C-alpha cells in the first residue's frame, strides 16, 4: 500500500462571517486574539462588502489604509476633499494597535457621504463635521471609523439622529510576497433593514477601492523595477510606519523560537 503524503493542517475558526486561519505555531492559536467585531452579531447593524485579489505586498495596503490623505488625489470624485491636506492627522498607539485620526469641522461632505446622508434622511448639502479613525490590528487588519454629522452637533459623538457613520472593514490575507486577498466592506448602524441601501453603498465603496488597487499595483511594479530605491516616509505616513515596525517585531518574535530549536 502506498501511504498518503503528510498534509500540514492549521487551526481555523469561523466567526463574524469570516474564516480565520492561524498559520503560525498551532499551540499559540487563541480565538481570544481575534479582533472584536461586535457589530457582526448585532441586528442593529448591516454589512456589505466584497473581496479583491491585489498584486501588491500586503504592507502597501496597510500603508494606504493608515494614511487617508491620498483620498484627495486618488478618490477626488468620491471621498476626497481639500481639507484632507489642510487638517493634520494624529497617530498614537495602544499596545500593538496603531490609531490614526483626523477630524474635519465645518466642511461640505464629499459625494460618497452626500449619497449616504440622503440615504439616511439628512440634508446632503448641510455643513458637516467629518471624522476618520484608522485602527491597525496586527497582523494585517485595519478598521476605520468614518462618518459625518451636522456641524456643531458633536462630530463622532453626535446623536444618531444627526449623523451618518460606519466602520470600514479591511481584512488582508497575504498570498505571496507581492499579492494579497483583500476582504473589504462597510458596517453601518443606520437603516440596517434597507437592503437596497446596503447594495448601493457596497457598489460605491467597491468603485472607491478599485481606484486604490490601480495605485497599489503600480507601486508594486515600481518597487520591483527599482529595488534599490527605498520608500519615502512623510509625517502623514506615521501610522503605516508604526504598523510596519509592529509587524517586523512580531515576525522576529515568532522566528526566534524556531531559530533556537534549530
Q: How is this structure best described in words?
A:
- The chain starts with 11 loop residues before the first strand and ends with a helix.
- It has 262 residues and is an alpha+beta fold.
- It has helices at 58-66, 71-74, 83-86, 111-119, 195-225, 238-261; strands at residues 12-15, 18-21, 46-54, 90-94, 97-108, 127-137, 141-150, 163-176, 179-188.
- The protein is globular and about 70 Å long.
- The protein is 31% helix and 30% strand.
- The chain has a single domain (45-261), classed as Naphthalene 1,2-dioxygenase Alpha Subunit, Chain A, domain 1.
Task: Quickly name the level 1 CATH class.
Answer: Alpha Beta
What's the tally of helices? Answer: 6
Spatial strand sequence of the major β-sheet: 3-9-8-7-6-5-4
Q: Could you tell me the number of beta strands? A: 9
Order of helices and strands: EEEHHHEEHEEEEHH
The CATH architecture assignment turns out to be Alpha-Beta Complex
Q: What is the CATH topology assignment?
A: Naphthalene 1,2-dioxygenase Alpha Subunit, Chain A, domain 1
**Average pLDDT, to the nearest integer?**
93
Radius of gyration: 20 Å
* Whole-number count of domains: 1
Counting helices, strands and paired strands, the structural category is alpha+beta
CATH superfamily: Naphthalene 1,2-dioxygenase Alpha Subunit, Chain A, domain 1
Terminal Cα span: 34 Å
Low-confidence stretches: none
What spatial form do the alpha-carbon principal axes imply? globular
β-sheet strand percentage: 25-35%
Largest sheet: 7 strands, antiparallel
